[in-house]
Design a protein that fits this description.
By secondary structure, this protein is of the alpha+beta class. 35% of the residues lie in helices and 26% in strands. The chain contains six helices and 13 strands. The protein has helices at residues 14-35, 43-48, 59-74, 90-106, 196-209, 211-220, and strands spanning 5-11, 82-83, 86-87, 111-118, 121-126, 135-139, 147-152, 158-165, 174-175, 180-181, 186-193, 225-230, 235-237. α4 runs antiparallel to α5 (196-209). The chain is globular, with a radius of gyration of 18 Å.
């Protein structure tokens, strides 16, 4: 998937955790083999070329495409699995796969906390210690090395944080209406919610919308908070974000 994944697992039997980690890593490699748009022989590439149908793919392909269709519906088309007219579910696969890996590890007997970071997007379960919550620093896109905010998972059993923007990968987010790079006043959008599958999609969609429409839309989503940073160094937040800062 062109990025680095890291795992932090607290508690559990060390041998069982190691085996589960090996399985999770193998699962991520399998996801890359199935969904990569850079591999000509991946199922998604074959599907995009209409050489096979969804019924000939692994069950996970249908699952991801159904989730993507829901994301497109909720975002009124601002999230899309089409890139320049071609099937490309990249925008949902990373978050979905990281969430799936984290959830499987969290179900191990004795495990009290799990954090999986996929290229800066994080899914957390439980806590690293009984008196300490998971915390995620949000990089400041306008001040390299600085933090725009710190998100805390205190008081919740699961939390995910995803950021979309131009600081790391340039103008890679596409406006589905034009098929070209999104032209907005934003440089970064961070979205916080229970599931990484969704917050990853919502961050992408909100970025494409721009600060005004993106903030209003994020405010309408239950259980979701957002932090938006404009090119003019203006920070805009949803009303409930303050409860997650720390």
């Amino acid at each position: 998937m062109g990025t680095v994944f890291s795992f932090d697992v607290r508690g559990g039997d060390p041998d069982a955790v190691r085996a589960a980690l090996d399985e999770a890593v193998a699962g991520l490699h399998r996801v890359d083999e199935v969904f990569s748009t850079y591999r000509e022989d991946s199922q998604v590439s074959q599907l995009a070329r209409e050489e096979i149908g969804v019924d000939a793919c692994d069950p996970e392909v249908a699952e991801v495409l159904e989730l993507a269709a829901e994301a497109e519906r909720v975002s009124d088309g601002w999230f899309s699995t089409r890139y320049r007219g071609r099937l490309d579910p990249t925008g949902i696969v990373k978050g979905w796969s990281a969430e799936r890996a984290a959830r499987s590890l969290s179900l191990l007997p004795g495990v009290t906390g799990v954090s999986v970071n996929g290229g800066g997007d994080v899914q957390m379960y439980g806590a690293p210690e009984p008196t300490r919550a998971w915390r995620v620093g949000i990089a400041d896109p306008l001040r390299p090395g600085g933090l725009a905010a710190v998100i805390s998972a205190a008081g919740v059993a699961e939390l995910a944080v995803a950021t979309s923007g131009t600081a790391e990968r340039g103008a890679h987010i596409v406006d589905p209406r034009t098929g070209k790079s999104a032209v907005t006043d934003l440089v970064a959008v961070t979205v916080v919610g229970p599931r990484l599958t969704w917050v990853d999609c919502w961050a992408t969609a909100a970025f494409a919308m721009g600060s005004r429409e993106g903030l209003s839309w994020l405010e309408s989503l239950p259980g979701v908070e957002g932090l938006l940073i404009t090119a003019g160094d203006e920070v805009r937040c949803t009303g409930g974000l303050a409860a997650r800062l720390g």
